[in-house]
Design goal:
Blueprint: H1 3-9, E1 12-18, H2 22-33, E2 39-42, H3 51-54, H4 86-99, E3 106-107, E4 112-118, E5 123-128, E6 131-140, E7 162-165, E8 179-183, H5 189-196, E9 202-206, E10 213-214, H6 222-231, H7 233-255, H8 261-274, H9 278-284, E11 296-297, H10 301-305, E12 310-313, E13 317-321, E14 324-327, E15 332-334, E16 337-340, E17 355-356, H11 363-367, E18 386-388, H12 400-420, E19 423-428, H13 430-444, H14 448-451, H15 473-479, E20 488-492
Parallel strand pairs: 1-2, 1-6, 2-3, 4-17, 6-18, 7-16, 8-9, 8-16, 9-12, 10-11
Antiparallel strand pairs: 4-5, 5-6, 13-14, 14-15, 19-20
Length: about 500
């Protein structure tokens, strides 16, 4: 039997969802609700959860309040704190997937190896570790923070101690009494540094750039708080709305940096209250406008830095010689373990290495000298019948779950139109994607991300901002209300 004949006889899905994290779970629930059932989810791991399954480092939690960092259709009264920790978020995602009967739709332990567009049949051909699948459309719900990034450091191969990334935490390694080097002071490091500090003999924290770390307004909800949430849903709804309003105010400031200058001054005064040593205060004071890099929240990070066994090194790691780590200023320290708090590969999404577009080009090859572009963070040029969730230039200061839900409403509207109108191929127009991204880049120049005086992961190697949305969350959601077929080249089944 020829490969074409095999394809003809195989089951053809209306859509395949890649990934069972927050986006993949929501996609399945929304598709079922819309009466769209011929789909399957492919998940490389043995359980749902995405980034909340993978990141298990000590202190791991969310910096968006739980009321908003949850699905709009599945509020929970189980949160123990205003800001949930990783185990509770993972448990929540598992509970939701069971409640809405998503798990039977998932093929676990099945990793996507390659997705290729078949122009002759207007189908996606997906090779996985469990075989080949055919689908009319694909939703890539693999998320922007999936692949841990470890920088290339001279002499790293000579290190003989223990070494791991925060996203691949080695819980079997005992940190007690060890000399520990932490590389990076981003969102993960400010959470795990206070947890490992009491264990360490010596703790060396390498900081290339001082981040803004603001006090976290967290509190234990206790049994009474949980009971109120459970018995009075209106309280939780009000909490969700108030959090959303607060984040909208922050987003306004990010778009209008002049309004952030007073916040900058308040932040510096708060720092002076928390850090007494003059040298340390100088080293942890950011030299850029608040919001230019991701705003971090913690109450225990600065106290941990001021302990006798902790040493902040305000320079990056540049070299390793055996078990000696060397900072950019030449400072040398012998350590037993290196923990990387260096984030993820976000400017070149790993999914790009597995997807071949209609031109026969692997997306990662298109992105190697720049970062990806998409229409509304969802549709990629020359990549028909495929949709990204949490793609380029949709980032606003809000819940990733809320952003994913908004994008999925747009995507599912498109999927329903494809099915109901007999569309065989839907490809975003080149002029539409160009006009959209030209406007994005024009308006993003005045936001704090580009004008705040920092270099962040929002910018690729060419200084182009591939992550942020330059307008309001309200405008983003309005644009994502429905997929406009006029923005796409459309081929119909009858015309083939």
């Amino acid at each position: 039997m020829t490969s074409n004949a095999k394809k003809q006889s195989a089951h053809i899905f209306d859509t395949l969802i890649i990934g069972a994290g927050i986006s993949g779970i929501a996609a399945a629930i929304k598709l079922n609700k819309a009466g769209y059932h011929n789909f399957k989810i492919i998940e490389k791991a043995s359980r749902v959860g995405g980034t909340w399954r993978e990141n298990t480092y000590p202190g791991c939690g969310c910096d968006v309040p739980s009321a908003l960092y949850s699905y709009s259709f599945a509020p929970s009264a189980k949160w123990s704190h205003l800001f949930a920790k990783q185990p509770e978020i993972l448990s929540y995602l598992e509970d939701v997937s069971k409640k809405f009967d998503v798990e039977p739709l998932i093929e676990f332990n099945n990793e996507l190896l390659k997705a290729v567009w078949d122009e002759a049949q207007h189908l996606w051909v997906l090779d996985t570790t469990l075989g080949q699948y055919l689908s009319r459309t694909v939703i890539f719900a693999t998320g922007p923070i999936t692949e841990a990034q470890i920088p290339k450091i001279d002499g790293l191969d000579t290190f003989t101690g223990e070494m791991f990334h925060s996203a691949r935490w080695n819980h079997d390694y005992d940190l007690a009494g060890k000399r520990i080097a932490v590389i990076g002071t981003g969102a993960s490091a400010i959470q795990f540094v206070p947890r490992i500090q009491p264990l360490a003999k010596e703790l060396y924290v390498f900081q290339r750039t001082a981040p803004w770390v603001l006090p976290k307004p967290d509190m234990n909800l206790g049994k009474t708080g949980k009971s109120v949430m459970e018995n009075m849903p209106i309280i939780q709804q009000s909490w969700r709305k108030s959090v959303a309003t607060s984040l909208n105010i922050i987003n306004f400031g990010l778009r209008n940096p002049k309004f952030l200058k007073p916040v900058n001054e308040v932040g510096k005064q708060l720092l002076k209250l928390q850090v007494k040593d003059a040298t340390l205060l100088k080293d942890v004071t950011p030299n850029f406008l608040v919001g230019c890099k991701r705003i971090l929240f913690a109450n225990d990070y600065y106290p941990a830095l001021q302990q006798d066994n902790t040493h902040l090194i305000p320079h990056g790691l540049v070299k390793v010689e055996g078990n000696t780590v060397i900072a950019a200023n030449g400072e040398r320290h012998e350590v037993d373990v290196i923990i990387w708090g260096t984030g993820f590969e976000v400017s070149h999404p790993p999914i790009g290495r597995k997807v071949t577009n209609e031109k026969g080009v692997v997306l990662a090859d298109l992105w190697k000298d720049t970062s990806p572009e998409a229409y509304l963070g969802t549709s990629l040029e020359n990549t028909p019948n495929a949709f990204l969730v949490l793609g380029p230039n949709v980032l606003v200061y809000d819940s990733f779950i809320g952003l994913a839900e908004a994008q999925l409403d747009f995507i599912i509207d498109g999927l329903l139109k494809i099915k109901e109108q007999g569309i065989s191929k839907l490809a975003v127009k080149s002029d539409v994607i160009k006009k959209h991204n030209d406007l994005v880049q024009k308006h993003i120049k005045t936001t704090v991300f580009n004008s705040g005086g920092c270099k962040s992961y929002y910018l690729d190697q060419n200084g182009r901002n591939f992550a942020a949305w330059p307008w309001s969350l309200k405008k983003l959601k309005q644009r994502l209300t429905a997929l406009n077929l006029d923005d796409y080249h459309v081929s119909y089944i009858a015309s083939k």
